[in-house]
Amino acid sequence: NRAPADLAFFEDLEPPLGDFLADASAGLASAPKTLSPKYFYDQRGSELFEGICETREYYVTRTEIALLEKLGPAFAEKAGKGTRIIEYGSGAGVKIRTLLDALDEPAAYIAIDISREHLLGATRTLAADYPHIAMGAICADFTAPLTLPPEAAIGNGLALGFLPGSTIGNFSPEMAELFLSRIAAMLGKGGALLIGVDLKKDKAVLDAAYNDAAGLTAAFNLNILKRMQNELGAVLEPDNFMHKAFFNEEKGRIEMHLESLCDQAVELGGTRYPFAKGETLHTENSHKYTVEEFTRLAEKAGFAADTVWTDENDYFSLHWLNV
Ligand code: AVI
């Protein structure tokens, strides 16, 4: 693949984007009804998510950014000169900038994302602002087994994986362990991972974070029904569903559902899927961990725990893990 001139390299693994119709049909046919949260993120869903990150109730983003800013000198000391950062998912850029600014002459930044357009846009914007750092991009499903392309061997500084935002929480613990073991294999012996993990805390705080007063999380959840209408020609009435999110203490996770307000049916691809009043379509899990629980998970995946930092309320944690 030809890299745009401002990038050190671009590798396109042409990841399958998933089949929304097949997945939605299978999810509606299953009991209980489910749908993958990956379908939240169309243009509108991504904008709503950015809005959620700014709400008073969703403490996650601002707490993590404050920690990243405060801990810059600690990261710089651990990483040394010439670090190669590999980010799993390319975000809005705020978090990676705190890291690029803090580290001592980082050599390279490599972003991995499934959305080609978003990946190239975000990486090229960074390339313009950090002309002395080699910027690379890999278009791939970052949860798949991956190897770093030879072009990524820019110097021999630390290979530092970066997975902020508690993205890991949206995986089941079993899938999280598998994904982390793949990251460890990709980074290789001597590598390290800096990962943000949301912590277990008072249920009221967790419940509020997923039920913001402005209704952005509700709109984000309901947007998946609008996508089914607009993109798949589903026949359904979004107003007949209600956003429902709560902390399931037994399973240690926030669950998001769309609850049917009446007996009704959704029609998709020529099939009718009946919903009883009160029945839900389960759209997302967001697992919360204690520091000890997450450390154990990371160790099972092949990492050695190095350092954990938390904010003053113990709401959120950053883990430095060594391969
Ligand atoms: C992206 N992910 C870490 C968010 C979370 O908190 O699980 C997605 C989200 N869902 C509702 N609010 C935010």
From TrEMBL:
GO molecular function: methyltransferase activity
Coiled coil (residue ranges): none
Record keyword Methyltransferase present: yes
A biological-process GO annotation: methylation
Domain Histidine-specific methyltransferase SAM-dependent span(s) in chain numbering: 22-322
Keywords: Methyltransferase, Transferase
InterPro entries linked to this entry: EgtD, EgtD_Methyltrsf_superfamily, MeTrfase_dom, MeTrfase_EgtD-like, SAM-dependent_MTases_sf
Membrane-spanning residues: none
Pfam families: Methyltransf_33 (PF10017)
Name used for this protein in its record: Methyltransferase
